[in-house]
Amino acid sequence: xxxxxxxxxxxxxxxxxxxxxxxxxxxxxxxxxxxxxxxxxxxxxxxxxxxxxxxxxxxxxxxxxxxxxxxxxxxxxxxxxxxxxxxxxxxxxxxxxxxxxxxxxxxxxxxxxxxxxxxxxxxxxxxxxxxxxxxxxxxxxxxxxxxxxxxxxxxxxxxxxxxxxxxxxxxxxxxx
Length: 176
Fold this sequence. Notes:
- This protein is mainly alpha-helical.
- It has a domain at 1-90: Orthogonal Bundle (Rna Polymerase Sigma Factor, Chain: A), CATH 1.10.1740.
- The protein contains eight helices and no strands.
- The chain has helices at 6-14, 18-40, 43-59, 70-88, 107-126, 129-140, 145-152, 156-175.
- Helix 2 (18-40) packs antiparallel against helix 3.
- It is globular.
- The N and C termini lie far apart (44 Å).
């Protein structure tokens, strides 16, 4: 990471330094957008959630405590907004989630891969919200259990329980 550390930029943003906040936003917006997109399955809604999250971070910058890693704090805001949006939103058709691009040479392999991915996405989408968030943060965002616990406001053992239950539900759903 080039430039000042996140906690230094956040301390400056807490004092009203817009330039420092812009650097933080540029540094983390793409990953936050990817997280929101995976949780919501909608590019437009994901962009809205990240913009809202960044606005909330700017407004609440004076409350930030350097004990928390900035990325963890931002992800927590994004995840909470996504969970709230999922609770409010009507169910979208599975086709709205889009398809994962695959570089496989043959069309039948691409079709099988898409079908498998669609089943997995549908199974993940049917998980309870906190289990889905734990799966996305752990396996798609690559966060450790301690960071996931901070984002979800739970303990590490709580995250492990969520992951065990989610994996069990996914195995069962995919076995069908």
